[in-house]
Specification:
alpha/beta; Rossmann fold; Luciferase, domain 3; GMP Synthetase, Chain A, domain 3; 3 domains; 9-stranded mixed sheet; 26 strands; globular
């Protein structure tokens, strides 16, 4: 069985199209192999090789997609959100122990400043828009030392991402080559992907959803992926006309904005028929699933994934099996079971969703406490606790029934409330703060915070939000700040995040 992403992609038809983008010629699988060889040579010459960690901070597009798949064939990739502030980059780069960082030519913003301050080797990516999509040149500003030139194997780390935990420190999730390859195969199998399929990618490529579900699964199946420069509902149907895809994958908020513009683009929908639409990273409201299926005349395949599983765990099946609104489908890759929420055993009925399979991370890096809480042995297998509560119906379809963790899921972006607490607590007028999830009609959950001010001090909601905005990425900044004389406490006297929105009478925002 092929257990590296490079080997999966390298087995495809060299003449077939692989990577596309707006206004660019297609890059074939043969061209992708040539690009991979150039990347290998450039990184080795720079002093980066097997086992070295390379942060990638690039805008969405074909260069980011190809950088991920080619650099992961040489070293360990660490994609980061370009929207981070300098302090956030400094934390993540240090936590990852990055040796080098790949930045766009001319980029001198927060990532560059943080990298220079830490002494990282900066590698510049430049490209000619007249070249096929995803062709680029890497040029290092300095040497990174020596490198191991051997190709990564199945047990080497291909990809590292951070996931928000229930502590203020995000957890490091290492995904091995075999984890990533297994997940790409699982998604390709559940969607019956083939060389005839083309994905229109609008997902950010610093996120597991875009990296694995859109890019890796497509290429592993010999299909093609057309890389948009991010998500733009105004341009989506024009991209459909140019790309001629037969599927796309997105988070529910994207689907909802596409649906809002679908009526005036009925001709495009008729001219570019989709085989299916895919949704993941947050719960898709049942009525939205039905409306999408009716509008596009295609099944909507909702999946259930998370970073620790290299994305997909369950998926609604393709026809002729049913797609059930409100369900995340049947197990689709790893084994999916229900466990007791406290005891280390599997149970029937409602409980914590657990998974076991070749796509599951071997464990959080440098965090034995989190690993002890998240993994357990039962019935001869090692199980990972997802932190989600759910149950199966009689046909094996899984439904999520609650959240055991306090993480805020803002339209697929996970926000650690304690991280936001830490930032707001630094405001000179803030005595006490609790960050929590409040309901939102489109995002599912939005970030909110309850604040008690220091005696004799004053601050407005806008001032506190502005303070947070200089220290946090925009999606982490509380949409609502409630200033209170006292924050409601639970029966034991503890501040409780879960249910706080309801206690404060905060209804769903739109």
């Amino acid at each position: 069985m092929t257990e590296t992403l490079a080997a999966l992609i390298g087995a495809q038809d060299k003449a077939a199209p692989a990577i596309g983008a707006p206004g660019r010629a297609w890059l074939s699988f043969g061209g992708l192999a040539d690009q991979a060889a150039r990347v290998t040579s450039a990184l080795h010459d720079t002093g980066v090789g097997r086992g070295d960690r390379v942060a990638i901070v690039l805008p969405n597009g074909p260069e980011m997609a190809v950088a991920f798949v080619t650099i992961s064939g040489v070293a360990t990739t660490c994609p980061l959100n370009p929207a981070y502030k300098e302090d956030e980059f400094a934390f993540y780069l240090g936590d990852l122990k990055a040796k080098a960082i790949v930045l766009a030519e001319g980029e001198t913003g927060a990532a560059y400043s943080a990298a220079r301050a830490m002494g990282l080797t900066v590698i510049r990516l430049s490209f000619n828009p007249d070249d096929p999509a995803g062709v680029f040149t890497l040029t290092a500003e300095s040497s990174a030392g020596s490198a191991d030139p051997t190709a990564p194997g199945a047990e080497d780390i291909a990809l590292i991402l951070h996931t928000s935990g229930t502590t203020s420190r995000p957890k490091i999730v290492p995904l091995l080559q075999r984890n990533v390859a297994a997940s790409a195969r699982h998604i390709a199998a559940s969607l019956a992907l083939s060389p005839d399929d083309r994905c229109l990618n609008v997902m950010p490529l610093f996120h597991i959803h875009g990296l694995i579900a859109a890019v890796s699964s497509s290429l592993a199946a010999g299909g093609s992926v057309w890389c948009a420069p991010g998500f733009d509902a105004m341009k989506f149907f024009g991209w459909m006309e140019e790309a001629q895809p037969n599927w796309y994958t997105a988070v529910p908020t994207m689907h909802q904005t596409i649906l809002a513009r679908a009526g005036r683009n009925a001709d495009t929908i008729a001219r570019v028929p989709l085989r299916f639409l895919r949704s993941s990273s947050a719960s898709l409201p049942g009525p939205v699933m039905v409306a999408l299926a009716e509008t596009f005349g295609a099944p909507v395949i909702e999946g259930y994934g998370m970073t620790e599983a290299a994305h997909q765990m369950a998926s609604n099946p393709l026809p002729p099996r049913a797609q059930k609104p409100g369900s995340v489908g049947v197990e689709a890759g790893p084994l999916v079971r229900i466990a007791h929420e406290v005891e280390d055993r599997l149970v029937d009925g409602v409980g914590e969703i657990v998974i076991s399979g070749p796509n599951v991370t071997p464990g959080y890096e440098g965090n034995p406490e989190a690993n002890a809480k998240s993994f357990f042995e039962a019935e001869g297998k090692r199980w990972f606790r997802t932190g989600d509560q759910g149950q199966f119906d009689d046909e094996g379809y899984l439904s999520l029934t609650g959240r055991l963790k306090e993480i805020i899921n803002r339209g697929g972006e996970k926000v650690s409330p304690l991280e936001v607490d830490g930032v707001l607590s630094a405001h000179p007028a803030v005595a006490q703060v609790v960050t929590f999830a409040m309901p939102h009609a489109k995002l599912g959950e939005e970030v909110a915070a309850a604040v008690v001010l220091k005696e004799g001090m004053e601050a407005t909601e806008a001032q506190i939000r502005d303070f947070a905005a200089t220290r946090l990425a925009a999606f982490k900044v509380p949409r609502k700040v409630v200033i209170l004389a006292e924050i409601p406490k639970g029966a034991t006297g503890k501040l409780q995040r879960i249910g706080l929105a309801q206690k404060l009478g905060l209804v769903a925002e739109t």
